[in-house]
User: Fold this.
Amino acid sequence: MAQQELDHLSGQTTTGHEWDGLKELNTPLPKWWLYVFYACIIWAIGYMVVYPSWPLVSDYAHGIVGPQERLHAVADYENGKAARLANAAGLADAPLDKIKSTPAFLEFAMANGKAAFGDNCAPCHGSGATGGPGFPNLQDDDWMWGGKLDDIYQTIRFGIRSGNDKMRDMTMPNFGKDGILTKEQIASVASYVMSLSDTTVKAAADGKQLFADNCASCHGEDAHGNQEMGAPNLADKIWLYGAGVDKVAAQISEPKHGVMPAWEGRLDPITIKSLAVYIHSLGGGK
Assistant:
């Protein structure tokens, strides 16, 4: 059992604990520190009574003053929303070309569209709208469904294979999985398609004819695509799912069918128009 004793040098008692000849003094905390500590406890209890604090099963303790900070935040949001709508007065009913030609409308649409793009589109298309594997670059002039202002607006509103009644929808056949073409025929078509934009690739002898028989109806005889059907241009060097004979063959055999959500109903009409104007202005819009 620890034995307390008086330390003659300090005049204080020890706790009775000793380590290698070193004895621990029983030094009390300063009274000012204890008073501050007790005051903090009292302050915390009072704070929990006055202000919202303890979480409950389905709500939280509102306190005497109630959730005033939350109400202030909601009020600030509503005020900002009202101010935004006031600044955009007339834009909701204005045609897209009028928005582009009216400086006041255009200034608001660009600022609003840039913010909306960062919040809703950047996760897929990138913060700079340059896209990535499976997600189109919105700054070039290669558009599957058209790059005119009205085309972009239509795509944003209703999406691509989104399930919306007015969506953009065209599904490429599974030429390999469904047995339309053999593995060898798919390799021939892939080599022909790649040779259109890469002179280092030698096209298979039957590749051109296989393309004409199976692919030209959508992509065109010259393989320059058809935006009305969402069929991409295969004669340029822009590839949504990667370049190379193997990757093109994989897309022919079992194509990836990208989905873009329909933003109508998720975003208000002003924001959708602003997005269309902003994206069209990035440099790739026609």
Summary: Residues 69 and 217 are 62 Å apart (CA to CA). The radius of gyration is 34 Å.
